[in-house]
# Entry
Amino acid sequence: MLLAIDIGNTNVVWGIYEGRTLTGHWRLATDASKTADEYGILFVNILRETGIDSTRITDAIVSSVVPALTAVFDEMVETYFRHTPLIVSSDLDMGIQIAYPNPKEIGSDRLVNAAAGYDRYKTSLIIVDFGTATTFCAITARGEYLGGAIAPGLGIASDALFTKTAKLPKVDLIRPKTVIGTDTASGIQSGLIFGYAGLVDEMVGRMQIELGQKATVIATGGLAALIAPESRTIREVRPFLTLEGLELLYRRTRGDE
# Structure
């Protein structure tokens, strides 16, 4: 069994693969103050509660965009699962060509998503990841990772309205009934939900012009399912794209493809 861990700025998303099947997945709040022991006990207890014997885990892979937690999870996996995890970096064989001046600048989650997306679709892609930031990654039909764009995430935008204004309330990120808000809360929800759908469609349109073709657009991340129905360009939501990519990279690195 493979333990796949994606450490993001807001959440740690992790799952267990048995062969190529994702048999369980969980989402925890990212907490840089937690120790390896605290995360280890938490992971083992969650697995126990779901009926998974942690001693059956034979391999592990970690992607991290939080440098302070990379070593913590490395230690945690070694201590509690008795394995040295594979840490994702641009040096791994991604199955794509990274046509980027400094590949080490690219978040490992973006590379993992690109690897998984291209392996599945084998065509030009634009991957939209709705995480702490909303990121766009462009991959050519030849499998070249060109780069992309980064915008503030929905959560950041919502929090900024609440913390930087005197009267605007914090609202739930849900779809309002109408674009024209009839109160402050629905007005904020409209601006966020429909506004971000417009952001996605505009960015995709501009990227497709630069790519010179209609790329397939896929979305992932915690808020993808909220925005995708309002977008004209998103073709498919793949909520576990990063975990899929981690499993793929582990197989590719170990020569098991």
About this structure: The longest strand covers residues 21-29. The chain has two domains: 2-87, 97-245. DSSP finds seven helices and eleven strands in the chain. The chain has a mean pLDDT of 95.
